[in-house]
């Protein structure tokens, strides 16, 4: 009986935990959970010219009418040019509900970020920052991605 309970708890923990992500600098708010299909630990492997697919659950601490997604890619500490596609940039279009959001409202945003690199085998750090009204940071996380 006890063993069964332990097994159920462990299973639940493994499912609920999601991916262990990298925290952004400057104490920007962290997500409640990030999941990346097909990736259970960093770095995630993504074929060149494919998409990095992710889902992030977070709750902005302030009310907001807008959500803007910014992506920064870096390699060995150098920023790479990265143009956020329009379909990803407007976060309100990719959440499981609609904007405006109230303070503390938990939402899930699902996004696809194209990846492209001149070299394979390199591991790029991708930082995802979602800001609300007035540029206030709602959530931020980073993940390492190895290009195949
Ligand atoms: C991301 O999703 C797209 C569309 O569903 C799919 O074609 C692509 O292979 C996915 N990328 C990865 C790395 O799984
Ligand atoms: C959206 O996702 C959040 C967090 O996962 C969840 O709490 C909420 O119930 C979802 N809302 C809808 C309308 O599905
Ligand atoms: C990845 O795709 C881009 C765009 O087609 C191409 O320029 C680049 O050479 C590709 N990288 C590799 C390692 O094949």
UniProtKB/TrEMBL annotation:
Q: Name one GO cellular component term.
A: extracellular region
Q: What are its GO biological-process terms?
A: intracellular cholesterol transport
Q: Where in the cell is it found?
A: Secreted
Query: What domain of life?
Result: Eukaryota
SUPFAM superfamilies linked: E set domains
Keywords of the record:
Secreted, Signal
Q: Which residues form the MD-2-related lipid-recognition domain?
A: 21-145
The record's InterPro entries line, in alphabetical order, gives: Ig_E-set, ML_dom, ML_Npc2-like
Q: Which Pfam families match?
A: E1_DerP2_DerF2 (PF02221)
**What span is annotated as the signal peptide, if there is one?**
1-18
Stated name of the protein: MD-2-related lipid-recognition domain-containing protein
Annotated organism of origin:
Anopheles merus
């Amino acid at each position: 009986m006890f063993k069964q309970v332990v097994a159920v708890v462990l299973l639940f923990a493994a499912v609920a935990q999601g991916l262990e992500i990298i925290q952004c600098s400057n104490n920007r708010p962290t997500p409640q959970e990030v999941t990346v299909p097909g990736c259970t630990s960093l770095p995630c492997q993504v074929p060149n010219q494919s998409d990095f697919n992710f889902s992030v659950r977070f709750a902005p601490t302030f009310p907001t009418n807008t959500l803007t997604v910014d992506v920064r890619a870096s390699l060995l500490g150098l920023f790479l040019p990265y143009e956020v596609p329009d379909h990803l940039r407007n976060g309100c279009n990719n959440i499981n509900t609609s904007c405006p959001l109230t303070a503390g409202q938990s939402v899930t945003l699902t996004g696809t970020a194209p990846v492209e690199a001149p070299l394979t085998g390199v591991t790029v750090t991708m930082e995802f920052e979602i800001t609300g009204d007035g540029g206030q940071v709602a959530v931020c996380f980073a993940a390492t991605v190895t290009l195949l």
